[in-house]
Amino acid sequence: MYNSNAVGSTANTASGSRVFRYEVVGLRQNSQTDRVSYPIRQSGSTFINVPYNRMNEVMQQITRLGGKIVSIQPLDADSKINGNVTPEQNETAVKVETGEGNQPGAKKKPMTQAKAKTDIPVNIYRPNSPFVGRVISNEPLVKEGGIGICQHVKFDISAGDLRYLEGQSIGIIPPGTDKNGKPEKLRLYSIASTRHGDDVDDKTVSLCVRQLEYTHPETKETVYGVCSTYLTHLKPGDEIKITGPTGKEMLLPEDPDAKVIMLATGTGIAPFRAYLWRMFKDNEKAANPDYQFKGLAWLVFGVATTPNVLYKEELEEIQAKYPDNFRVTYAISREQKNPEGGRMYIQHRVAEHAEEIYKLLEDEKTHVYICGLKGMEDGIDAALSAEATKEGKDWKVYQRELKKAGRWHVETY
């Protein structure tokens, strides 16, 4: 993954001065053929010499040009492979994957990874021209005995240019018309996969979707959400209209030493699953050599019953493998009791750990993320307000300071 702070400093380190040789097959011939359906050249290999601080960037560009990396070999800057490699030859090799230098005035293709706020991908696809993807899989997340329907839906986006970062959302446009006879409007859903996708091949995006179900207050009929019902019942191969990505509020800090506190209810787990995969999954760690998480990730997760703990196996696997870096605390409302004897909700868990959370907040590396039902916000504020008072501070004032510093992130509905 591209990390602006790491790249800016790496060039001055021993690792930053290293060069790696990629052996690539299947590259399209130039930047123009990348825009249309020209045949992909399959004859022979292309050798690209890449500085350490550009490895991920070039990997992404090779993938987008249809190429496949068959080997990566570390080189010294002055290494000889198949003859001498001059600085000019090295520069030409790095440009091959972008098409730069193939024709006069050709511009370099934009990077697929963000390196600053201004480089965050936003609205690549808009409602009037959505990307049409296909469903790869649609798997149930609620175990037997749980409440409701919640699915993990994975889409193939390899045919387009949709890129995204952890913490962003995409829009889904369901088919049909609304009650006024107009085309259905898009609904936003938090992305549940890392920027590399569940298969770590930059070809998919995944959502965590619960079917909305409620009783109409007047007719007493059961009403099902239009888009959530559509998504939870999709079949592999079905086409779907996607817009976006959108959002900058929930982006993960680039600092691998950060302390990340995640407060989620239900499908609010979606962006946090993406964070945790990026932090701890082996394939992701291999794909992101410039981001190796060494901080603390603490998830406080509120659900109704144990079978409703979404991604439970994944969470427990990470916890077992990284006990010093990941904690998970459940608030299971219909099975656990709060100190007053009522149902245990997420705000009760925050109150229970308020002193520890507050002390973590005093560290400038600590970020708090809240995602899920809006109703939990007041309880979280009340719990931390009580702790702030003990420290002689006004919580609302302190919270505004945290928001201004970019350390308090909220996405509720």
Provide an overview of this structure:
With 413 residues, the protein is α/β, with parallel strands linked by helices. It folds into three domains: 4-103, no CATH class; 131-246, Elongation Factor Tu (Ef-tu), domain 3, CATH 2.40.30.10; 259-412, 3-Layer(aba) Sandwich (Rossmann fold), CATH 3.40.50.80. 24% of the residues lie in helices and 25% in strands. It contains eleven helices and 16 strands. The chain has helices at residues 4-10, 55-64, 87-96, 226-232, 270-280, 282-287, 312-321, 346-352, 354-361, 376-390, 395-404; strands spanning 19-25, 46-51, 68-75, 131-140, 150-156, 169-173, 187-190, 204-210, 213-215, 222-224, 239-246, 259-265, 296-303, 326-332, 366-372, 408-412. It has a six-stranded antiparallel sheet with strand order 7-6-11-4-5-8, with helices on one face. Strands 14-13-12-15-16 form a five-stranded parallel sheet, sandwiched between helices. The chain has a three-stranded antiparallel sheet with strand order 2-1-3. Strand 9 and strand 10 form a beta hairpin. The two termini are 30 Å apart.
